[in-house]
């Protein structure tokens, strides 16, 4: 059997970028709090966390790409909240942000984490922003650390 590659969750020395959407800010600020908590509790120095606010989830991939291209970041986290409305707008936003984040990650070789809450209603969003279903921002922080460390294992 070959090697099994599994990264630890130690964030010491990592530099992390966060891109967060202002749309539905009452939820996204909770995701940001969760992400900051997750990063710091796993050893990331607050000085090594940069946060960029964008208007909405649709804009996350563009700024994530600008950040990734600086070469400064070990991982980037996208945080946003898309809540279904009366029209098809939801589907366009969700599809583009998901595809965009995946593309930025593959094009730049920087892990970009999908820390978005995409829900049918406000209640589902609240549940995923620090109440009964955890905090998607915290989960994204742990994934960012794991991916940054995993990437280093393939150098
Ligand atoms: N409806 C939601 C949006 N819509 C805004 C777009 O993301 C974008 O900012 C605008 O279309 C300008 O390009 N954004 C969210 O983050 N969440 C939503 O529920
Ligand atoms: C997910 C959204 O974009 C949403 O806020 C838009 O709502 P609507 O479809 O009612 O315009």
UniProtKB/TrEMBL annotation:
GO biological process, one term: riboflavin biosynthetic process
Record's GO cellular component terms: cytosol; riboflavin synthase complex
GO molecular function: 6,7-dimethyl-8-ribityllumazine synthase activity
Chain residues that bind (2S)-2-hydroxy-3-oxobutyl phosphate: 86-87, 128
Pathway, per record: Cofactor biosynthesis; riboflavin biosynthesis; riboflavin from 2-hydroxy-3-oxobutyl phosphate and 5-amino-6-(D-ribitylamino)uracil: step 1/2
Catalytic residue positions: 89
Top EC class of this enzyme: transferase
Reaction catalysed by this enzyme: (2S)-2-hydroxy-3-oxobutyl phosphate + 5-amino-6-(D-ribitylamino)uracil = 6,7-dimethyl-8-(1-D-ribityl)lumazine + phosphate + 2 H2O + H(+)
SUPFAM superfamilies in the record: Lumazine synthase
EC annotation from Swiss-Prot or TrEMBL: 2.5.1.78
Stored Gene3D superfamilies: Lumazine/riboflavin synthase (3.40.50.960)
Keywords: Riboflavin biosynthesis, Transferase
Domain of life of the native organism: Bacteria
CDD domains noted in UniProt: Lumazine_synthase-I
InterPro entries: LS, LS/RS, LS/RS_sf
Residues engaged in binding 5-amino-6-(D-ribitylamino)uracil: 23, 57-59, 81-83, 114
Entry similarity comment: Belongs to the DMRL synthase family.
PANTHER family found in the cross-reference section: 6,7-DIMETHYL-8-RIBITYLLUMAZINE SYNTHASE, 6,7-DIMETHYL-8-RIBITYLLUMAZINE SYNTHASE DMRL SYNTHASE LUMAZINE SYNTHASE
Subunit annotation: Forms an icosahedral capsid composed of 60 subunits, arranged as a dodecamer of pentamers.
Function: Catalyzes the formation of 6,7-dimethyl-8-ribityllumazine by condensation of 5-amino-6-(D-ribitylamino)uracil with 3,4-dihydroxy-2-butanone 4-phosphate. This is the penultimate step in the biosynthesis of riboflavin.
Protein name (record): 6,7-dimethyl-8-ribityllumazine synthase
